[in-house]
Amino acid sequence: xxxxxxxxxxxxxxxxxxxxxxxxxxxxxxxxxxxxxxxxxxxxxxxxxxxxxxxxxxxxxxxxxxxxxxxxxxxxxxxxxxxxxxxxxxxxxxxxxxxxxxxxxxxxxxxxxxxxxxxxxxxxxxxxxxxxxxxxxxxxxxxxxxxxxxxxxxxxxxxxxxxxxxxxxxxxxxxxxxxxxxxx
Length: 184
Known about the structure:
The protein is an all-alpha fold and about 180 residues long. The protein has helices at about 15-25, 40, 55-60, 65-70, 75, 80-85, 95-105, 115-130, 135-145, 155-160, 175-184. The chain has eleven helices and no strands. It is globular, with a radius of gyration of 18 Å.
């Protein structure tokens, strides 16, 4: 596991209040993590992460706030729950990642993947508008903000051909109830 620029963990770097705060925000006890790495071995995006999911659990357990809030793993996690399904302790790892993202934004932590934050915002905007994600609109809005409409065009055409992208969004029936959540 990589820690800052050195391999030493100093007691002055530990913030136990941070660990308790993330536990409260996530609503799950990540302290029961066995470090078995089942979550990491099943994660479809682990090749792109600087810390594996179990490594992030350890960072938070130890109270290594800066490392946890500035790692790219919390932004690359898509919340697919593959990790939680494989976890023998049933830890809600995506819930921990959500709590860490929330804390990182609130504390203005350095985000290694700044475009990923914009992408997450577009996903949330889509959920607020329709009650679910509309992938085509998310990607179009995201690409417009980046001024990068053409780089993934071939992938988009392939997804359309395989019927993986809907041209029009579908809405949930009680969208007003969902909008109340976003207003809180």
